[in-house]
Amino acid sequence: MTVINSKVANIGEMKLEHFEKGDTFESNSVRIGTLLGAKDLGYSYDVVPPGKRSCPFHSHRGEEEMFFIVKGSGTLRYGSETRKIREGDVICCPTGGPETAHQIVNDSDADLAYLSVSTKMAAEVCEYPDSNKIGAYGGNLRHLTRIEHDLDYWTDEVP
């Protein structure tokens, strides 16, 4: 990979890492921001094979995301809606709850490649409407639980 002053890289020259989970999730991707030393934004390049998705349907309470479709076509799930997406599309995913949940699905017969950019927050809460999970992330904390496992603020605090 060619890197100029550690701040410029070409996606065509990057080594992509393969990820696969079950029959649904698969991608080849690279965390570009980490490689180039980005501080406040995270950015990645993902190539999703036909019939796959790179991540679960989710929303963010702290981080805003943007996707730019580099090549191919597919479907965007966004809240309760779906729409076709294609090369050149820019997708905005602001913070919010299930109404801003999003997922890119490659339902075409060719690779779908996109760049994602997100704000980097020290702490984040994500919701996963398809599986009724909530994830809390920050530092070394990575905790997922079910929405129905609601505890009162005072549970086990008062003897």
UniProtKB/TrEMBL annotation:
Q: Which InterPro entries match?
A: Cupin_2, GPI/OXD, RmlC-like_jellyroll, RmlC_Cupin_sf
Q: Secreted: is it a keyword of this entry?
A: no
What is an example of a Pfam family matching this protein? Cupin_2
Which part of the chain is the Cupin type-2 domain? 47-117
Q: Which GO terms describe its molecular function?
A: metal ion binding
Entry keywords, A to Z: Metal-binding
- The protein here is known as Putative conserved protein contains double-stranded beta-helix domain
